[in-house]
Amino acid sequence: MELTFIGSGNAFGAGGRHNTCFLLAGAKRRLLIDCGASSLVGMRQRGIEPNEIDGVVLTHLHGDHFGGLPFLLLDAQHISKRKDGIFVFGPPGLSARLAQAQEVLFPGSSTTPPLRFPLDLREMPVGEPCRGDGFAVTPYPADHSAGAPCYALRVEMEGKIVAYSGDTAWTEALIEVGRGADLFICECSSYERAVPGHLDYKTLAPRLAEIGAKRVIITHMNTDMLELRHTLAHETADDGLTIKL
Questions:
Q1: Exposure on the CB side of residue 47, measured as CA atoms within 13 A
Q2: Are 165 and 186 in contact (CB under 8 A)?
Q3: Using an 8 Å Cβ cutoff, are 208 and 170 in contact?
Q4: Cis link prior to 70 (omega < 30° from 0)?
Q5: What's the pLDDT score for residue 113?
Q6: Among 75, 55, 69, 52, which residue's Cα sits nearest to residue 103?
Q7: Distance from CA of residue 45 to its chain's centroid?
Q8: Strands of the sheet with 21-25, listed across from one edge
Q9: How far, in Å, CA of 46 to CA of 6, rounded?
Q10: Per CATH, which fold does 2-234 belong to?
Q11: How far apart are CA 67 and CA 29, in angstroms?
Q12: pLDDT tens digit string along 125-159?
């Protein structure tokens, strides 16, 4: 199984990076973890065919984490001409917010024409595993604000666990999200400056041993973190980075 960082950036394009989007590819399932506004561009750059994606799981409903969905679905309908079903799992409010985004960006696209492929749209209750064919996603509460619940995610697939903080300030829930995971992807927006709803490295670093993930990769970095990334004691993400699990 492999994970590819299609996008490792924040909302503001720091370092010229794409918005958050990770591809988790196993022998039988290929899913996106978040789908920020630039995700389809990033996929095309990496030679990742949209029709090969089985589905998307979302942490929250900010544009840099879910804003690529209208483009992905429009591509599936008109360009890639998708026939197989696709799933989208996300927090409560997903259905309404997605329809709103579709109508703002491409009026009429949320209802007409009828989709040529099945769409499994599910809103995940916090703390309850949401199961698909060959995988399970458990959402935990994140300390972030997006006009709807915000989650950290623990994804189990093919005997491996990938945990992702989503966007969040420090919360004890991260200990359970990342505990013993094969990979814990953690946002860290700043080095030491407190940013509401986000982590800084000075706060995060001392807690990572307590979380006890087998591997940690830091993502979603602001400019100050990018400038200091080579001085850190932990791995950092780049667009296009692929790792084996």
A1: 0
A2: yes
A3: no
A4: no
A5: 84
A6: 69
A7: 18
A8: 119-123, 86-90, 55-57, 30-33, 21-25, 2-7, 242-244
A9: 8
A10: Metallo-beta-lactamase; Chain A (3.60.15)
A11: 23
A12: 999 999 999 999 999 999 999 999 999 999 999 99
**DSSP codes of every residue in 199-228:** -BHHHHGGGHHHHT-S-EEEES--HHHHHH
Which stretches of 80-124 are assigned E, i.e. beta strand? 86-90, 119-123
CA-CA distance, 44 to 60, in Å (whole number)? 24
Domain range annotation of the chain: 2-234
d(CA 191, CA 116): 46
**Unique residue bearing structure tokens 């994804």:** 155
- For residue 239, give both structure tokens: 């667009």
CA 215 to chain centre: 17
Q: For position 80, what pLDDT does the model report?
A: 96
Structure-token pair, residue 72:
């992905």
Task: Give CA–CA dist 110/176, Å, rounded.
Answer: 37
CA end-to-end span of the chain: 5
Q: 164 — phi, psi (to 5°)?
A: -140, 130
Q: What is the pLDDT of residue 102?
A: 97
Residue 241 φ then ψ, to 5° = -65, 130
- 54, burial (CB in 10 Å: exposed 0-12, middle 13-18, buried 19+): buried
